[in-house]
Amino acid sequence: MGMKEPTDDKIKKFWKWCGFKVILIKESFATKEHWEIVASYGDVIWDGFNLGSSVDLNNLFEYVVPKELDYLPTYRFLFDRWLEKLEDYPDPALALFWAIWEVKQDERG
Prior knowledge:
This protein is 48% helix and 14% strand. By secondary structure, it is an alpha+beta fold.
C-alpha cells in the first residue's frame, strides 16, 4: 500500500503538526550534527542522528497520542485506525505513525 518508512520531511511535518519543534543541530567543536525534537515548553523530548528513530512506540504514546486524544471523538477511533494500519505495516510504531498521519491529514481537509 503506502510507503513503509516515512521520509525525514514527513517526520518533521508530523512532529510539527503535533506541536513540537524539529531542530537540526549543526556540527561544532563540541557536538556532531544531530536532530532534536523540542516540546513547546522547551524540553528536548528526543535527540539522535537518524530522525526516523524518533518514530517509536514510547515517543508516540508518551507525546503524541495524549495530544491527539484531545481532538478525536474517542480513543477507539485512533485504535481502529492503528489496527487497520497493522495489516499493511508489521512494525507497530510505523503503523501508529501512519494512522496518526491520516488522522492529521483528515483534520486538515
